[in-house]
């Protein structure tokens, strides 16, 4: 699923893939609540260790999306070893700012 259309994003995605998926689940929920983000969904990916967090946003430019995701990622890094990726990313070509469709809602 493409995350960018005309260099704008409607969703920010944090995709975790690691053995501490339960800890990540609780940490991301707490972090999002702390920064007053309430419009998000968490899904299990194709395997139990993959979680996908979809955060709904209103038409952010790629630069704005990347800035917000970097702040979120930096906050997560304070508590966990980095085993996630954030999309969309300014470092990737538009064609690579895609995410696989989630499997099950958590």
Keyword list:
globular, 33% strand, 6 strands, alpha+beta, single chain, 106 residues, DNA primase, PRIM domain
Could you please describe the fold and organization of this structure?
The chain has 106 residues and is of the alpha+beta class. It has one domain: DNA primase, PRIM domain, CATH 3.90.920.20. The chain has 2 helices and 6 strands. It has helices at residues 21-34, 62-77, and strands at 4-5, 8-17, 40-44, 50-61, 84-87, 104-105. Strands 1, 2, 3, 4, 5 and 6 form a 6-stranded antiparallel beta sheet that branches. The longest helix is centred in the middle third of the chain and has 16 residues, at 62-77. The model has no long low-confidence stretch (mean pLDDT 94).
